[in-house]
């Protein structure tokens, strides 16, 4: 079987180009507020990348930084003032926050209409209800877009989601359920994962286990979306899927890098524009 490689980078570029054209037509540009607490190296890089991507499509981003010793109250006060500021359309709290802060309380404090990450309980509930008001977390939203790009009808397919985090696995499972897939969620305590994967038409893997999924795990023609970001034994970036190994067995597969990653940023930008448009309608 010829395996099609889903090029997330190209698809994300096309989406960003479309967003740029839409935003160009707006008199007032959308504003995204980004809150960064402490000096976690990777978080600083992620924030910089998100800000650069926002700027490229015409979204203005405002960065609010705090030192590690900030109090819960100080961060909550900032969120309250950003909620009240009608010029701010989206609020993003970069995770993780220092352990002494209660991240869940901070996320719940963000106005659900400005919650461009889709982590607010109201948005999670809307997603569960299949309500269009839901702001959907960027990574699973991007994965669904990649699945739709294959042109394969999702209705009735067996989908296996590996991982049950609130940022990837759980919303992913709900999105696939809303697409009429029959969904199985696997996690670290799941037994006989390989038996489950053999039965899956779609596998979305988000467990962070380097090259765990091999061709023997797959049903012929399965669609494989690899969310994992891992390092192999030689320190090279890879995903949860043994990419080279599954070529010839899967019908479609995403590479790491240039698969899901670029889609996450594109969906964050799309969520910001959508928040802006909803707030102005
Ligand atoms: P997490 O650590 O919160 O969750 C991992 C999940 O995988 C857990 O539910 C755990 O039960 C499950 N798991 C762990 N080992 C397993 C195993 N052997 N078999 C089955 N399930 C297992 O991680 P997360 O935040 O959901 O991220 C998952 C992966 O996706 C990580 O590699 C992360 O770097 C990556 N990620 C990528 C993007 C992107 O934009 N590409 C975005 C978010 C996360």
Average pLDDT works out at 97
Global structural class: alpha/beta
Biggest sheet strand line-up: 1-11-8-7-5-6
CATH architecture title of the largest domain: 3-Layer(aba) Sandwich
Low-confidence stretches: none
By CATH, the topology of the largest domain is Rossmann fold
Shape: globular
Total helices: the number is 10
Return the string of H and E elements. Answer: EHEHEHEHHHEHEHEEEEHEH
Give the fraction of residues assigned to helices: 40-55%
Ligand species: nicotinamide-adenine-dinucleotide
Characterise the protein shown here:
The chain has 281 residues and is an alpha/beta fold. The N and C termini lie far apart (48 Å). It has helices spanning 8-24, 41-57, 72-84, 103-109, 121-128, 138-149, 169-178, 193-198, 243-246, 260-280, and strands spanning 4-5, 31-37, 60-66, 90-93, 158-162, 182-186, 202-205, 223-226, 230-231, 237-238, 252-253. Helix content is 41%, strand content 16%. α2 links the parallel β2 and β3. The chain folds into 2 domains: 27-111, Rossmann fold (3-Layer(aba) Sandwich), CATH 3.40.50.10860; 137-261, Rossmann fold. It is built from 10 helices and 11 strands. The relative contact order is 0.17. Nicotinamide-adenine-dinucleotide (NAD) binds at residues 139, 162-165, 167-169, 186-188, 190, 193, 206-209, 227-230, 260-261, 264.
């Amino acid at each position: 079987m010829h395996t099609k490689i889903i090029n997330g980078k190209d698809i994300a570029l096309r989406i960003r180009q479309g967003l740029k054209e839409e935003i160009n037509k707006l008199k007032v540009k959308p504003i995204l507020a980004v809150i960064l607490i402490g000096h976690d190296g990777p978080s600083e890089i992620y924030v910089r990348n998100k800000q650069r991507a926002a700027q490229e499509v015409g979204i203005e981003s405002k960065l609010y930084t705090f030192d590690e010793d900030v109090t819960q109250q100080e961060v909550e006060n900032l969120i309250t003032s950003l909620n009240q500021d009608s010029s701010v359309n989206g609020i993003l709290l970069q995770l993780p926050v220092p352990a002494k802060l209660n991240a869940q309380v901070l996320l719940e404090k963000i106005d659900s209409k400005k919650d461009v990450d889709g982590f607010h309980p109201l948005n999670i509930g809307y997603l569960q209800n299949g309500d269009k008001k839901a702001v959907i977390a960027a990574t699973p939203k991007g994965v669904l877009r990649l699945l739709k790009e294959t042109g394969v009808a999702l209705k009735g397919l067996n989908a296996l989601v590996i991982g049950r985090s609130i940022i990837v696995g759980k919303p992913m499972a709900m999105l696939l359920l809303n697409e009429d897939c029959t969904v199985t969620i696997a996690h670290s305590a799941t037994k006989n994962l390989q038996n489950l994967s053999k039965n899956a038409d779609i596998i979305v893997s988000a467990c962070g286990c380097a090259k765990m999924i091999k061709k023997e795990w797959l049903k012929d023609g399965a669609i494989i979306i690899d969310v994992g970001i891992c390092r192999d034994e030689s320190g090279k970036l890879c995903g949860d899927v043994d990419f080279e190994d599954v070529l010839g067995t899967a019908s479609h597969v995403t590479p790491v890098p240039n698969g899901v990653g670029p889609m996450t940023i594109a969906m964050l930008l799309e969520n910001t524009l959508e928040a802006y448009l909803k707030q102005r309608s």
